[in-house]
Amino acid sequence: MTTPLILVPLESSEQETLRGAPELLMAKEVGALLRIATKKVYGLPVARVELSPRRVRWLRTDVLAYIRRQRHAA
User: 63-67 long-range contacts, Cβ below 8 Å, gap at least 24?
Assistant: First the structure.
């Protein structure tokens, strides 16, 4: 069972800074997108961004590309 994602409103200055920046997803967000357990996300062949040893993120575009590849492979 996955928990719902909570969206936090940003200040207008923060929105301007983030506009155009690639969206980074946490493991639980990738898991929710793919409908798989969070722990299984780490084993997927999807490029990841390691911000620190304990902080890993995935680009939304990479996750969506993975979904497209899997869909065409089936």
Answer: 63/25, 63/30, 63/33, 63/34, 67/33, 67/34
Q: Which of 13-17, 26-30, 49-53 has the lowest mean pLDDT?
A: 13-17
Distance, in Å, from the CA atom of 71 to the CA atom of 42, rounded to the nearest integer, reads 20
Could you give phi then psi for residue 28, rounded to 5 degrees? -70, -30
- Residue 32 main-chain phi, psi, to 5 deg: -65, -40
Contacts of 36 (CB under 8 A, 6+ apart): none
pTM of model > 0.90: no
Counted domains in the chain: 1
Report the distance separating Cα 29 and Cα 10, nearest Å. 19
Q: Is residue 10 part of a domain?
A: no
